[in-house]
Write a structure and sequence with these properties.
Strand order of the largest sheet: 2-1-3-4-5
Radius of gyration: 28 Å
Number of strands: 19
Distance between the termini: 73 Å
CATH superfamily of the largest domain: Winged helix-like DNA-binding domain superfamily/Winged helix DNA-binding domain
Shape: globular
Number of domains: 3
Strand content: 15-25%
Structural class: alpha/beta
Low-confidence stretches: none
Amino acid sequence: MITLTVDGNPEDLSIISGILTDIDSDGDHIRAESGSKALEIADQYQLDVVFINTDLPDSEGIEIAEKILLRQSETNIVFVTRDASYAVRAFGLFASGYLMKPVSDQDIRSTMRNLRYSIKQADKKSRRLEVRCFGTFEVFVNGVPITFERSKTKQLLAYLIDRQGDLCDIPQMVCALWPESDGGPTATNYLRRLISHLQSVLNMHGVGEAIIRSWGKMGINKTMVDCDYYDYLAGKPEAAAKFKGEYMSQYSMGEMTLASLMMRQYEAEQEAPEVKKERRLTVKCFGKFEVDMDDEPLIFSRRKSREVFAFLIDRQGAPCFVNEITDILWKETDDSVKHIFRTVLYELRKSLDKIGMEDVIIRKHRQLALKRDRIDCDFWKLLSGDKVADEIKPDRYLREYAWAEPSRETIRSLLGNE
């Protein structure tokens, strides 16, 4: 069970979460001192019960409860307050309880026995830590990314993953996280706090058993981890396809492992040169824009991912600055476009990766380009002087995209000169 207690009073927070811990010692009982913090937590966890004060330092608790219910409609909301005036609004939210302070152990237990929505007990043993090492190091549980308040906590976990389950002692971990440190008491004490924080975060997500601790040492329980790096070492082809020469790119401590991966990849290519990819994408620009591989259509998960790929095709695979792409394809002009574009590009590359063609897109120096030798395109063939088929007409070229009009003019000129 995952509960959240929201109250600006530290003493009340301690009392309520303490009672909840007594009720369910195996559960995760999170605390928040403000409404904004509560919403951050609601974006990260599937909450079973929320105990919330109507009067919070930065907002009204009932408004925060409404926002939580918009995110998670079957979360039990229990108001804990000294103000009875919100009872009618609470009733309208179908709250599971409305307790007046000071609350007692009996109040909490009675409320927990009479919740509006039943609590689906998650089988924590079935939860696994999902780790991505190729590219930047990222961690997920059930597809939801884990956020770390301290960047060094995340780096500590990355180091343990890199060690593949070996138990590491304090000096080893200090050296990995602070290479310039003398390993004195300051670094050691800070590391101990990071270890405690890492264990707390993983416990909160139900994957605390992914960490093994024994007599001043700790390591990763590989049986609880799904990791592209581990799959690569195990020889899984899908993992080999994901490795593009990047490993934990935000951490210099991964450079030795990266070097060994690059050597392993090189040796594999030398031993089996015939395995090198020769497959090509077929792109149709006249009429409806279509992309296929071996007569099987490429499925784009987002329309915008499809449009970005069409734009790169229109530019004949030449490097295009990201800013140019977003300026033409998006009407928005604020910073949110950068985040949207990263998501769209990620989805596009994921679609290509499913057919082993992610490397057809080249990203370098804030530019995108295409590997032309991996693509057969009717538009490109026309530009290179190939015979024009009857169905190739200027107005049919990428007809769903207004930004393709300059290329249509080029095609009209080419056809008019024949």
